[in-house]
Amino acid sequence: MKRREFSAAVAATLAAAPFGLLAPAYAQQFATLKMMIPANPGGGWDQTGRNLAAAMQGAKLVQSVSFENKGGAAGTPGLAQFVNSSKGDPNAVMIAGMVMVGGIILNKSPVDLTMVTPVARLTSEYEVIVVPASSPHKTMDDLVKAFKANPGSVSWGGGSAGGTDHILVGLIAKAVGGDTSKINYVPFKGGGDSVAAIVGGHVTAGVAGLGEFAEQIKGGRMRALAVSAPAAEDGIKSLKEQGIDVVLGNWRGIFGAPGITSAQRDQLVKVVQAATETPMWKETLAKLGWTPWFLGGDQFKAFIEEDTRRIAAIMESLGLKK
């Protein structure tokens, strides 16, 4: 059987087979998966990629996964490397999300998500605003008052400039009548860096996905002031409940290499979907406070196109779009 015929046969098997039969078919075709995580270790993309890989391996959907972390500039350097080095490789994937959409716009990146192959949207996660445990700001109202009195004196630590964390700070500032042009935003390349800065008191407040700060909050090293959900999450009041009319969810997904075939893309969609149906992945969602938000293939591609337009409009309204 020729390679193309074999690929088509595997795709057909994946489409028709129940979950228990997916693993052998996939393992024969894609023994090794190469995963680009365009961020430093410890953050949301890193957590997403490594937990998804663990679910794949635990269910024997893939034999092994190798990782490469490349942080900075909202993931655009990692995206550029992925685009340039992985063309046509059906074994190569990349984790990314809403942060990268904003970063591409802000940085006027020469590479964008139209150059890779959308596979699946995986999760949505609400953001949390925290301060160090020793902070004098006991409530979100305290933080807002300090910001409005002297915007530059309040430093907000988060992910890359133009990403979800930065957009959320801008939306909060706009909602409370603050000066968005005077936001003192401090971007970090990875979750580990931002955690250290917040716990160490090097920034006034921190913003990230709830899962990234969950351990620090539970351990008493950070104080959670608000979440960007419509209502309270994990005992943390929402911004809306505290009079700040802002709701923002951060999606994450997985992409294939440029130039892979539709059949190869569809195989990846099936395998990723199967991994998200495993008990291991569901346990990860519960542990990290992620909401399952699966969307595959062409539907995911259409979603990215719409989200790019939406985020560009938000950034322009906040004065973040250059």
Strand content: 15-25%
CATH architecture of the largest domain: 3-Layer(aba) Sandwich
Instruction: State the distance separating the first and last CA atoms.
Output: 53 Å
What structural class is derived from the secondary structure elements? alpha/beta
Name of the CATH homologous superfamily of the largest domain? Bordetella uptake gene, domain 1
Which sheet architecture does the biggest sheet show?
Answer: 10 strands, mixed
Could you list the spans in which at least 5 consecutive residues all have pLDDT below 50? 1-21
For the record, what CATH class of the largest domain applies?
Answer: Alpha Beta
**CATH fold-level assignment of the largest domain:** D-Maltodextrin-Binding Protein, domain 2
* Order of secondary-structure elements: HHEHEHEHEHEHEHEHEEHHEH
Radius of gyration: 20 Å
Query: Number of DSSP helices?
Result: 12
Multimeric state: single chain
Q: How many domain regions? A: 2
- The residue-averaged pLDDT reads 90
- Global outline: globular
What is the count of β-strands? 10
> Helix fraction?
40-55%
